[in-house]
Amino acid sequence: xxxxxxxxxxxxxxxxxxxxxxxxxxxxxxxxxxxxxxxxxxxxxxxxxxxxxxxxxxxxxxxxxxxxxxxxxxxxxxxxxxx
Length: 83
Hints:
82% of the residues lie in helices and 0% in strands. The chain has 3 helices and no strands.
């Protein structure tokens, strides 16, 4: 545990940020994995899952969890899987 007060504050802040970001990151990753699994199995609801995954990617980008180029790249790759 840090001794310096500013370091203690930093630890507290980073813990808070991690606790806030982790469920959002998990939901985004889960949506993408569900779509990929459905797309590989040629499931009928793949188009619906694509919309959900795309929305989850956009949400993750808007909250600052992933960068703009990563969001674009992932959406492009998922669109390829859909075809």
